[in-house]
Recover the amino acids of this structure.
């Protein structure tokens, strides 16, 4: 997966916007970050999962997903190795990350439409 493909998947979420955080692109829903690109370097993305979601994604695709180092990783932030990633692996993680930060009403509306 390329950074552009990751970006397209992230921006495909309802009301997703691209911004910048600490000199790398991030993706937000109503101001809250759910994913980033370029940290720790251009080969990686990040999705903001819960610790339980993180365990499931890392267990299912350890070559794609790895916990972010330190406290952020213990809270669920998960790096995505773009070279190993596929649409089928990353799309559900981005959807989960989006749902984790989206306002409840917006997430429920999106669930009803899906």
């Amino acid at each position: 997966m390329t950074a552009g493909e990751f970006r397209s998947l992230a921006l495909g979420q309802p009301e997703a916007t691209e911004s910048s955080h600490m000199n790398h692109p991030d993706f937000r829903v109503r101001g809250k970050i759910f994913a980033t690109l370029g940290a720790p370097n251009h080969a990686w993305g990040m999705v903001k999962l819960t610790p339980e979601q993180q365990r499931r994604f890392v267990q299912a695709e350890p070559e794609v997903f790895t916990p972010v180092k330190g406290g952020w990783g213990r809270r669920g932030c998960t790096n995505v190795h773009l070279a190993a990633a596929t649409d089928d692996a990353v799309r559900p993680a981005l959807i989960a990350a989006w749902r984790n930060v989206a306002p409840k009403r917006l997430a429920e509306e999106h669930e009803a439409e899906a």
